[in-house]
Design goal:
The radius of gyration is 33 Å and the shape is elongated. It contains eight helices and 21 strands. By secondary structure, the protein is α+β, with helices and mostly antiparallel strands. The chain starts with a strand and ends with a strand. The chain is about 35% helix and about 30% strand. Strands 2-3-7-6-5-8 form a six-stranded antiparallel barrel. The longest helix has about 35 residues, at about 255-290. It has helices at about 5, 85-110, 140-150, 230-250, 255-290, 305-315, 340-350, 370-380; strands at about 1-5, 15-25, 25-30, 35, 50, 55-60, 65-70, 80-85, 115-120, 125-130, 155-160, 185, 190-195, 210-215, 220-225, 295-300, 320-325, 330-335, 355-360, 360-365, 390. A hairpin with a 2-residue loop joins strand 14 and strand 15 (about 220-225). Helix 5 crosses helix 6.
Length: about 400
């Protein structure tokens, strides 16, 4: 069977003859005389396209044969069907995949880091790298070398290897013993790998490679990159964002970071001033509530305000305080009346959909519903006669 996606990945239209039909889980799968759609593999997603106007929904590769399933019936054995491939999408994916080969090879050569796994989307990809040689300072160097390879317009070479020769080849990644399809992808002087995915024909088709970020978790470095038109779109989006920020801050690209840092510093200073003012207001309110004849004080408002007010109040007088944040369905409780807070919270957790915890003196809860009922039960626990005494914080 001819796998057309390897012969000419840019061709977008085929007339194929239906050779066979099989049923799998009530779905019809068609075997054509030519396989026009890449079925997926090597980490790359299958092609998108249509046959006689019906969208491709699945593909199964069985040795040399590739079966396709569509959203509806497309014909019987012996019929010719018109297949159309979304080659723009295929090109973006093949460019991303070829770029991954280049980046993985450079990390192997320069930092001695091995590619453990890759994950592709249509606009960016990630590579998980292992090894002790990671150096954040050399990312720019690797990116520069990757783009030198792109500009060198190196023609890729593809061939099916004889299994007997695999052990003698300088492959970047070790291979298992059960290789069914030993397809070699060679970027001369850069990388030699076994891979069944669709690639660019020439590194120049990539256009550009941009490493976006790296993250380290459990000794594995996850690198995110983009390439081709996706890299151009990423640059355009970020450039537009910077221009808008420059207009807002009266800055330039050279000074925008400095301006943003200053804005953040100013904002943090104002936050501290505001927090001190809120603490002063809450302290004054706590003094007022401390003089109340009621033992139980209930208030509504922002959760952090309720937390501050409650802790200040019980430090000034013998009270029980229940703060209610209706926006978040949360309660904060303080007391110094020998009525342990954790007892009522644990009881409510057993009887209602409530999350939270605490100790004898304080605690907090979040409930998904029944807020009014839970508030009443908490109020009755602390003072059955006074649960309707409620203060509201604006």
């Amino acid at each position: 069977m001819i796998k057309a996606y390897y012969e000419d990945s840019s061709k977008d239209k085929f007339t194929c003859r239906i050779e066979d039909k099989i049923i799998i889980d009530s779905n019809t799968y068609y075997l054509f005389d030519t396989a026009p759609f890449f079925p997926g593999g090597g980490g790359e997603t299958r092609d998108e396209g249509t046959a006689n106007g019906k969208a491709l929904v699945d593909a199964l590769e069985n040795g040399e044969k590739v079966y396709y399933s569509f959203e509806d019936e497309i014909g019987d054995i012996g019929w010719n069907v018109e297949c159309i491939i979304d080659t723009d999408l295929r090109k973006r994916r093949s460019i991303m995949h070829t770029s991954q080969h280049i980046i993985s090879a450079l990390f192997e050569d320069i930092l001695g880091m091995h590619t453990d796994s890759v994950h592709f989307s249509d606009t960016y990809a990630t590579i998980d790298l292992s090894g002790s040689g990671f150096d954040e300072k050399r990312i720019a160097e690797i990116e520069d070398k990757a783009n030198e390879i792109v500009r060198s317009c190196i023609a890729l070479q593809f061939r099916i290897a004889d299994k007997s020769e695999l052990g003698t080849l300088p492959l970047r990644k070790a291979i298992g013993e059960d290789i069914d399809f030993p397809r070699l992808v060679n970027i001369p002087g850069v990388d030699l790998s076994l891979c069944c995915a669709v690639h660019a024909d020439n590194t120049g088709q990539i256009g550009m490679i941009k490493i976006l970020k790296t993250e380290t978790k459990n000794s594995v470095v996850r690198l995110t990159f983009t390439a081709g038109s996706s890299a151009v779109n990423d640059y355009r989006m970020k450039n537009d964002a910077i221009l808008k920020i420059n207009a807002m801050l009266s800055s330039t690209t050279d000074t925008v970071v400095e301006r943003l840092i200053k804005k953040e510093d100013d904002f943090n200073a104002l936050k501290k001033q505001f927090a001190k003012l809120k603490e002063t207001v809450n302290s004054i309110e706590a003094d007022r509530l401390a003089d109340s004849e009621h033992t139980l004080i209930m208030a509504e408002g922002d959760f952090d305000d309720m937390k501050s007010l409650g802790s200040l109040l019980v430090a000034k007088a013998e009270k029980a305080f229940v703060g209610i944040d209706r926006k978040q369905n949360k309660l904060i409780i303080y007391q110094n009346l020998d009525r342990p807070v954790n007892l009522i919270i644990n009881k409510l957790k057993n009887d209602y959909d409530v999350r939270g915890g605490g100790n004898a003196l304080s605690g907090q809860m979040m409930c998904s519903d029944n807020l009014e009922e839970i508030v009443e039960l908490v109020a009755r626990y602390f003072d059955p006669a006074e649960f309707l005494n409620t203060e509201t914080q604006e």
